[in-house]
């Protein structure tokens, strides 16, 4: 019945055609007009639970007065289009005052839409709003709180929290404050990592006699605590919502799940998800995307794959970040089909979307699987993109990969390129070369490894000489084996008694 009444009201308003594109952007009934007589109604509307909607591109666009004809709506639409084009044609840094001064004043709903159209150039949008608030005395009706909320949001996204704070102060002085303005500043501080200031704004809102926190306010507060891994206060805010007259919505639970994921609290993440499945607020697509991320980070492959089936099309088409998270989960797993699954997911990552950390993980996976061609392909890409590997574990995996394939010449080539690229060399690289040269009876090259070690400032160890001793003794080259024993004694790696025993055994 509510939608039917809503349409009936719209038929009585001559601006129906102008408003229709925006009706789906807001879940609440839209007031018919913003006349002085309805100011109290409008104030309650903008302090409603969706006061943060403009932060998600869902600002309700309202008219201040009914247009006298369909032509008026078309005129505003045309004026808005022309004004946007003229403003966007300005060079940076832009001063829009001349264009705005020479144009007819826009009603609030149209100016809100103008700010949205200028969001690709936040400095220009803020300059336009600055002009508008300095000419607010000539506006009829006056500047609306939602315009301040929109400008504060843009300032926050432009990493200018100081300006966002100044705008709220100005709105308070002009007595055009609302819950949505406070919400916008809280979100701006949250976006810029200013946790204490966001909480301070919440405290100010609670003291304002004309406004009161909405569920959106508490959702922002949940996000503030969740991003900072402050789980205890986050859970306290959730209890406050549940014990108040407000009702938690889908954003409430999604924000809590996101907080648990940030804190790596997988059990509580799952319990919140089950609570949603059993309660009136059911999981949505965003919930499933969050759970997919959580299962990927926690390494729960079975549940990760189950959730992936629910959102496969969305993830494959639009969420490369989640694709990378799933690949990372497979890289760290013991799944027998991990290579097959990794390659299936990799098809959805654009070639230009290179991540050094993921490239290094894939080098290690292919090395562990003994797939030398694929391993070298990713090593070559790392060299090409100047990725530097400093992790001993990765280097050891590469060594093992070459050893499994008995590819000593390829290993030698890798060592040369790795040294040139600034990768972290380790003694194991040289020991592996010695072992492999020894197996192939390439004695001169095996001894040459000692010179390489000296060049890279790796002193020989007892293991170094034991590798050489074993290589000679296994094929009966007694004289060379005894020479190695002598070197070990000379460097203090064996005692005279051990030397005698070794010689007797050979």
Q: Which outline best applies?
A: elongated
Could you name the ranges where pLDDT drops below 50 across 5 or more consecutive residues?
1-68
* Distance between the amino and carboxyl termini: 99 Å
Rg result = 34 Å
Into which percent range does the helicity of residues fall? 55-70%
Order of helices and strands: HHHHHHHHHHHHHHHHHHHHHHHHHHHH
The average pLDDT score comes to 84
Q: Which class of secondary structure composition applies to the elements?
A: mainly alpha
Would you report the number of β strands?
A: 0
Give a short account of the largest sheet.
none
Q: How many H/I helical runs? A: 28
Roughly what fraction of the amino acids lie in strands? under 5%
Protein name: Pentatricopeptide repeat-containing protein At2g30780-like
PPR repeats: 249-283
GO molecular function: mRNA binding
Family: Belongs to the PPR family. P subfamily.
């Amino acid at each position: 019945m509510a939608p039917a009444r809503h349409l009936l009201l719209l038929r009585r308003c001559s601006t129906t055609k102008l408003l229709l594109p925006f009706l789906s952007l807001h879940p609440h009934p839209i007031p018919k007009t913003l006349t002085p007589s309805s100011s109290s109604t409008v104030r309650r509307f903008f302090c409603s639970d969706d006061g943060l909607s403009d932060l998600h591109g869902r600002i309700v666009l309202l008219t201040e007065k009914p247009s006298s004809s369909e032509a008026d709506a078309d005129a505003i639409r045309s004026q808005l289009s022309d004004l946007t084009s003229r403003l966007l044609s300005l060079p940076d840094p832009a001063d829009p005052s001349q264009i705005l001064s020479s144009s007819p004043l826009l009603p609030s709903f149209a100016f809100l839409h103008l700010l949205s159209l200028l969001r690709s150039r936040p400095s220009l949008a803020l300059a336009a709003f600055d002009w508008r608030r300095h000419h607010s005395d000539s506006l009829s009706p006056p500047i609306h709180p939602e315009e301040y909320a929109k400008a504060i949001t843009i300032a926050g996204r432009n990493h200018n929290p100081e300006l966002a704070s100044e705008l709220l102060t100005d709105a308070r002085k002009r007595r055009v404050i609302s819950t949505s303005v406070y919400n916008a500043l809280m979100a701006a501080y949250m976006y810029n990592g200013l946790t204490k200031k966001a909480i301070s704004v919440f405290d100010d809102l609670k003291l304002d006699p004309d406004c009161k926190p909405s569920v959106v306010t508490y959702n922002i507060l949940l996000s503030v605590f969740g991003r900072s891994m402050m789980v205890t206060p986050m859970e306290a805010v959730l209890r406050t919502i549940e014990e108040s007259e407000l009702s938690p919505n889908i954003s409430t639970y999604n924000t809590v799940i996101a907080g648990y994921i940030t804190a790596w609290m997988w059990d509580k993440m799952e319990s919140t998800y089950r609570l949603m499945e059993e309660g009136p607020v059911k999981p949505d697509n965003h919930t499933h995307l969050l759970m997919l991320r959580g299962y990927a980070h926690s390494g729960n492959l079975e549940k990760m794959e189950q959730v992936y089936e629910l959102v496969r099309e969305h993830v494959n088409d639009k969420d490369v970040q989640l694709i990378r998270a799933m690949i990372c989960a497979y890289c760290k797993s013991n799944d027998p089909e991990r290579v097959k699954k990794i390659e299936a997911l990799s098809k959805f990552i654009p070639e230009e979307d290179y991540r050094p950390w993921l490239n290094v993980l894939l080098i290690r996976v292919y090395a562990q699987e003994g797939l030398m061609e694929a391993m070298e392909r990713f090593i070559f890409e790392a060299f090409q993109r100047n990725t530097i590997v400093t992790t001993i574990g990765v280097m050891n995996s590469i060594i093992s990969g070459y050893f499994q394939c008995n590819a000593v010449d390829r290993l030698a080539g890798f060592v040369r390129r790795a040294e040139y690229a600034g990768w972290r060399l380790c003694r194991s690289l040289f020991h592996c070369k010695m072992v492999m040269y020894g197996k192939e009876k390439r004695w001169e090259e095996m001894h040459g490894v000692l010179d390489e070690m000296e060049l890279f400032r790796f002193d020989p160890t007892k293991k170094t000489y034991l590798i050489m001793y074993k290589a000679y003794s296994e094929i009966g080259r007694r004289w060379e084996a005894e020479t190695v024993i002598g070197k070990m004694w000379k460097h203090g790696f064996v005692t005279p008694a051990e030397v005698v025993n070794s010689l007797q055994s050979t």
